[in-house]
Amino acid sequence: MITTTDLTKVYRSRGREVTALDGVDLHVREGEVYGVVGQSGAGKSTLIRCVNLLERPTSGTVTVAGQDLTALAGRGQRAGSALRQARSRIGMVFQHFNLLSSRTVRDNVELPLEILGVSGKERTRKALELLDLVGLADKAKAYPAQLSGGQKQRVGIARALAGDPKVLLSDEATSALDPETTRSILQLLRDLNRQLGLTVLLITHEMDVVKTICDSAALMSGGRIVESGSVGELLATPGSQLAQELFPVGGAPSGADRTVVDVTFQGEAAAKPVISQLSRTYNIDISILGAAMDTVGGNQVGRMRIELPGPFEENVVPIGFLREQGLQVEVADVAYEAAGTQTAATAATADTTDAAGAKKTAVLKEGAK
Ligand SMILES: Nc1ncnc2c1ncn2[C@@H]1O[C@H](COP(=O)(O)OP(=O)(O)O)[C@@H](O)[C@H]1O
Ligand SMILES: [Mg+2]
Questions:
Q1: How far apart are CA 52 and CA 64, in angstroms?
Q2: Separation in Å, CA 242 to CA 135, 180, 223, 225, 267
Q3: Report for 134-138, 208-212, 231-235: range of highest mean pLDDT
Q4: Which atom of ligand 1 is nearest to 38's Cα?
Q5: Adjacency order of strands within the sheet including 90-94
Q6: What pTM did the predictor assign?
């Protein structure tokens, strides 16, 4: 539904060049919710603005719903009007809502229809229908200042839907909202995705957003996509940074002679009592160092960090057993720090992990600003 090929964007200002996009190949399938995450400055906003040609790419192509938008951009008047037409089929939702304070809620939703030249009566009918769809039928005559943040964003979403788009783009739509409102807006986006068959491309710095509604995700860094795929595929990819951030598991080994293993459960495998089977089959004691369980797209997914007695060489068979059960198994590279007493050493290692984890979250949070 949305494809970018070798997309680059170089900003030139005051003699300085900034490469905001550096060869981005994005592929969003029809009907899916696709999340792009990454640190502040990674190029996420530039990418989404290039997808609807609000920003002109330096090179590469953008295709939306089978139409090459880059070919339409700035090639004479006829192409220009074709581009406007194509753009009206792409809705955009913003972090700070971008509502006109002097207009009522209904008039805000009517705005894009005015620009498209839709007649007054038809505009009003459409606006009221959309306000009903986003749960704001009773606020048509209110002004933005009389609404809560969540209600404002619902108006923003209704306005984005005015041109009957096939695609909805969202740049940090929930970043200015509290957690509860965030959940209700995400639920609305999910409902619209299902009801209208809307393809949603959203940018976020919150992994929870990805966890709650995304079918697929990409991680951006330095203007490039460094990881991408369906959430299921990502979780099944050894060493995936997105998987680790979606399901962080911490925990340090309790002694030097231990093997620490990260196990990812998906679908049916999540319901099997594999750990107790492993313990019984090989007569070994297993400690759980950390775990996270959650539902992604209706499927139960989880990760667990376990500790097996003995070095890796002695655990090749138990690890193979876990793999045979359809689980993704990775040997974690976490060292036991032997200095001082055992408790002190374990605590120190746990602290380092925590510090690193906290730092990552903090960096991702900057994306909001
Ligand atoms: N209009 C602009 N002019 C010059 N540089 C820009 C402009 N917009 C963004 N940039 C730069 O491009 C890079 C990517 O920015 P952006 O796409 O906003 O990242 P993100 O949304 O991931 O935080 C940053 O280094 C930013 O400073
Ligand atoms: Mg941004």
A1: 8
A2: 33, 24, 17, 12, 19
A3: 134-138
A4: 22
A5: 90-94, 167-171, 199-203, 33-38, 216-221, 224-230
A6: 0.82
Joined together, the tokens standing for residue 153 give: 């964003």
Sort strands 59-64 and 2-13 into parallel, antiparallel or unpaired: antiparallel
Is 18's C-beta closer than 6 angstroms to any atom of ligand 1? yes
Ligand 1 centroid from CA 22, angstroms: 12
What is the C-alpha to C-alpha distance for residues 243 and 233, in angstroms, rounded to an integer? 9
Lowest average pLDDT, out of 31-35, 76-80, 287-291, goes to 76-80
pLDDT value at position 237? 81
Neighbours of ion ligand 2 (CB under 5 A): 45
Give all strands of the β-sheet with 16-28 in edge-to-edge order.
Answer: 16-28, 2-13, 59-64, 67-68
- Please give the Cα distance from 194 to 98 (Å, whole number): 26
| Terminal-to-terminal C-alpha distance of the chain | 29
Does residue 21 have its Cβ closer than 6 Å to ligand 1? no
Distances (CA, A) of 101 to 108, 129, 295: 9, 21, 39
Tell me the pLDDT band of 267, cut-offs 50, 70 and 90. Answer: confident
Task: Report the b/e string of 233-261 with b at 16+ CB within 10 A.
Answer: ebbbbeebebbbbbbbbbbbbbeeebbbb
What local confidence, expressed as pLDDT, does residue 362 receive? 33
Q: How far is the CA of 118 from the centre of ligand 2 (A)?
A: 32
Are 182 and 22 spatial neighbours (Cβ–Cβ below 8 Å)? Answer: no
Q: Is 170 left (phi over 0), alpha (psi -120 to 50) or beta?
A: beta
- pLDDT by residue (tens digit) across 225-253? 999 999 888 887 878 899 888 888 878 88
347, 336 contact by CB (below 8 A): no
Question: Which residue in the block uniquely carries the two structure tokens 């602290």?
Answer: 351
How far apart CA 200 and CA 303 sit, in angstroms, is: 27
| 92 CA → ligand 2 middle, Å | 14
- Give mean pLDDT, residues 39-58: 94
Q: Is 36 left (phi over 0), alpha (psi -120 to 50) or beta?
A: beta
Distance in angstroms (rounded) separating the CA atoms of residues 307 and 256: 11
